[in-house]
Automatic annotation (TrEMBL):
Ranges of Polar residues composition bias in the record: 780-802
Region (Disordered): 1-26, 775-802
Organism: Sphingomonas yantingensis
InterPro entries cross-referenced by the UniProt entry: Ig-like_fold, PhoX
Top-level taxon: Bacteria
PANTHER family attached to this UniProt entry: DUF839 DOMAIN-CONTAINING PROTEIN, SLR8030 PROTEIN
Pfam families per the UniProt record, alphabetical: K319L-like_PKD, PhoX
Name assigned to this protein: Phosphatase
Length: 821
């Protein structure tokens, strides 16, 4: 064999004659000549969690060849509570130049990283039930393909209120916590149709059927994608649908209204007032300058008391709904006094007709003689007894004699039958009305299976596949009831995305069972069915002889009476905890509650100075848990989550929830849980409470508070001693929730003489929409008592004659986190 002169070499022989630097030379010289790639305010790596700055750490991997891997740093361990915005900031140094860099999540509940392919990324801390670590890795690759990485750990803790309580005040602005900003979005009179003139706000404006209405109340945001289709995840474009409950008539006309008490009313004034009621839908878009509405959007719509509507459900076609407008009892005109609301998984709005009875003229002294005893009983029970009607619209003599726009508000039986007069027109109101916010060509539908009353709200319980869904409703008047409607049809998930949304409403809302609540002293309760032929709901009932189920639903109050429901302290909004399914009901107040009528569910009777009147002046919030945690249950457990009161009132018998200056309140009204699409509605959902108060306004304007309310049964029993006017005392044992403490906090205070009502958010919870109703409601055209919203952020004081306007405000957290957390 021929042997080679030099044997096999593994490369240890130097054969390079050049003078290029060695690897050791490169390492030694690296730090004196390296380039630095930085992001953020400092070369040090930081991570910011809700305002706290974390120290830095780093790690790097070695490369092979003639180049050294980048040097990467990333934020060190820190913590953030759910809903807070977290900022991850890294630094990279490298000789050869960085080609790619990115943040990735290594472990923990999955979050969505914004700007993940840059050195600075952000995410919203997810909802958790206990401290949970999330690990993130930052990886950088240079031009040589060499790579380095660093990791940081964020410990996410359960959600906590993320603001300092706003102090009570009587300022003529909307006050929000430090770290938050507020802006005005839509206002009374804003034009929502192309070419409609800008609002002058001097009482001369007309065309309210093409403008935002007055007294904005409950509202809901429905998302839109870039193509203008339904998108339940959109945070930048949507349709805001808002109720318009009533009017401040003094500001709608140049010099105030004419003959508003009894008439005759000018037709132009009455038309303006009618059209300012109802519902509005407007498209919203978030741009670089923030949120704005689109005046000429094809989604914009007004539903007024004059809009054609369909009657749906068991009362459709009943003789009780026959009018000259609809001789078959299948259709009607409009909706009025819309207060609270609800929404459905198939993306429709449920708007609720509340104090509608007072709009009708029906002097009982003369009209009762024209009615049957049964009719008189029903009309009296619903309060259709006004001599002239709230605004005397029936007194208008229209220019067109065939125009029945005003005649319909006269409910007297003056003709030969219900097809010749409007005796049945009141029966057309008091319903839940379903509206498709995405299709303005579809007429609203009145869902009669849900009963007729002073509907304050209609909030759904949890939708579970195969289970019959339920909707919870308060009847807003003193000593009225809490109701529940259970659909006849089990829920099918596919129906949530059906494009024919009102047809899905037909499926779930037109057949089912209406129940009313009975609260027992031992903390239990029953749902009593309001079904013809069951219990006392029969044709032989001595109080009211029910004819059929249409009669029962049209006169649900009477059916609830005979079934023995519990009279409550003015039931208002309902809200359902999206995690637990527990139902919350605001009981705003009750001036007629006495020591003789106090019970476990309505236990307080007291005097709150400076008033000398007795009753439940400040109201409370009751909650219930369905047996078996199912919407189909016919029984429940209950307690009182919160007793509203001033912090200076007797802690033993009045301020039972131990409220302080940071969270005392009166007359809770609006009620809403955060959306389950973000941390405010997950694990431990955030509850928003709004007030409509006259008892506390000597101390503060109306307000909105945020709370983590706990669970039914987290407190115990309490004995309340009530004192009657004659000095005698009586005791009531009630069920009380755990004292809220710092888990209840004042978030917002409104302007002068307003009500805070209506609240919703974008799906990500970063934008909160809040309704401000009737600021300056006690003023006149000549001497307004508020100048809001012109006073909001004003550089100079608005003119003395500036008229106030109801409006929607947008509230955001300055760092971009979930509002409230």
């Amino acid at each position: 064999m021929l042997e080679l002169e030099s044997g096999y070499s593994d490369g240890d022989i130097d054969t390079n004659p050049t003078s290029n630097p060695s690897l050791n030379d490169l390492v030694d010289r690296r730090y004196s000549r390296r380039d630095t790639l930085k992001s953020g305010v400092s070369a040090a790596a930081i991570a910011v969690f809700g305002g706290s700055v974390l120290a830095a750490c780093d790690s790097n991997s070695s490369g092979n060849g003639n180049n050294t891997a980048p040097v990467v740093t990333a934020g060190s361990s820190g913590s953030a509570s759910a809903g807070r915005l977290v900022t991850l900031t890294s630094t990279v140094t490298d000789d050869g130049g960085i080609v790619t860099s990115a943040w990735t999540q290594v472990s923990g509940p999955t979050v969505s990283l914004t700007n993940a392919n840059t050195a600075t990324a952000t995410f919203t801390a997810p909802a958790v039930s206990a401290a949970t670590p999330l690990v993130f890795r930052y990886i950088a690759t240079d031009q040589q393909g060499l790579q380095a990485s660093a990791e940081t750990t964020v410990s996410v803790t359960p959600a906590a209120l993320g603001f300092t309580a706003v102090a009570k005040n009587k300022n003529d602005v909307v006050t929000v916590p430090t770290g938050y900003s507020v802006g005005v979005l839509t206002r009374l009179g804003d034009p929502i149709v192309k070419d409609v003139a800008a609002f002058k706000n001097d009482g001369t404006d007309t065309g309210y059927g093409s403008r935002i209405g007055d007294h904005g109340d409950a509202l809901h945001y429905f998302g839109l994608n870039a193509a203008g289709a339904r998108d339940d995840t959109s945070n930048t474009r949507g349709v805001l649908v808002q109720n318009h409950e009533n009017i401040t008539v003094a500001y709608l006309h140049a010099s105030g209204p004419t003959n508003v008490a009894a008439g005759p009313r000018p037709e132009a004034e009455a038309l303006k007032e009618i059209e300012a009621h109802g519902v509005s839908a407007v498209e919203l878009v978030r741009g670089t300058a923030g949120w704005a509405y689109v005046q000429d959007s094809t989604f914009n719509r007004r539903v007024t008391p004059n809009t054609a509507v369909d009657i749906s459900g068991p009362v459709r076609g009943s003789a009780l709904l026959v009018t000259p407008y609809s001789t078959g009892g299948t259709a009607g005109r409009g909706t009025i006094n819309n207060c609270a609301n609800g929404s459905t998984p198939w993306a429709t709005l449920l708007t609720c007709e509340e104090n509608w009875a007072g709009y009708f003229r029906r002097p009982a002294a003369t009209d009762n003689a024209r009615r049957t005893p049964k009719e008189v009983t029903a009309l009296s029970r619903y309060g259709v007894t006004s001599t002239n009607g709230n605004y005397a619209w029936a007194s208008v003599t229209p220019a067109d004699a065939s125009n029945t726009t005003y005649r319909r508000w006269d409910a007297q039986a003056t003709g030969t039958s219900s097809t010749t007069d409007y005796r049945n027109e009141p029966n057309q109101f008091g319903w839940v009305v379903e509206i498709d916010p995405y299709d303005r060509s579809k007429a609203p539908r009145k869902r009669t299976a849900l009963g007729r009353m002073n509907h304050e709200g209609c909030w759904p319980g949890p939708f579970v596949a195969g289970r019959k869904p339920a909707f919870y409703m308060g009847d807003d008047a003193q000593n009225e009831y809490l109701y529940k409607f259970v659909s006849a049809t089990g829920w099918a998930e596919a129906d949530a995305t059906n494009a024919d949304r009102l047809a899905i409403g037909d499926k779930y809302l037109d057949a089912g069972t209406l129940y009313v609540a009975k609260f027992n002293a031992d903390g239990t309760g029953q749902w009593l069915p309001l079904v013809f032929g069951q219990g006392n709901v029969v044709s032989t009932n001595a109080t009211y002889a029910f004819a059929d189920q249409a009669d029962v639903l049209t006169h649900a109050r009477l059916a609830a009476d005979v079934q023995g429901a519990t009279r409550m302290d003015r039931p208002e909004w309902t809200a359902v905890n999206p995690v637990t399914g527990e139902v919350y009901l605001t009981l705003t107040n009750n001036a007629s509650r006495t020591t003789a009528t106090a019970d476990a569910a309505n236990p307080r009777v007291y005097v709150d100075p400076p008033s000398t009147a007795r009753g439940n002046r400040n109201g409370h919030i009751i909650r219930l848990r369905e047996t078996g945690d199912t919407t189909e249950a016919t029984s429940f457990n209950w307690d009182i989550y919160l007793f509203a009161a001033g912090s200076d009132l007797d802690a033993t018998n009045i301020n039972l929830s131990a409220l302080t200056a940071d969270n005392d309140l009166s007359s809770p009204d609006g009620l809403w849980f955060g959306r389950p699409s973000n941390a405010s509605g997950q694990v431990t959902p955030l509850l928003w409470i709004q007030t409509d108060d006259g008892a506390f306004t000597d101390v503060t304007n109306n307000q909105m508070l945020a709370a983590f309310p706990g669970r039914v049964g987290d407190g115990g029993t309490r004995t309340v001693t009530n004192t009657a006017a004659d000095g005698t005392t009586s005791q009531v044992v009630t069920r009380i929730g755990a004292a809220p403490g710092t888990n209840l906090r004042r978030f917002l205070v409104g302007p002068v003489e307003c009500e805070i009502t209506g609240v919703d958010s974008t799906p990500d919870g970063r934008t909160l929409f809040v309704g401000i109703q009737h600021p300056g409601e006690n003023g006149t055209a000549a001497t307004p008592t508020s100048k809001w919203p012109d006073s909001q952020g004003a550089v100079s004081t608005p003119p003395a004659t500036t008229r106030p306007r109801s409006a929607v405000v947008v509230v955001v957290k300055n760092d971009g986190g979930v509002v409230g957390l």
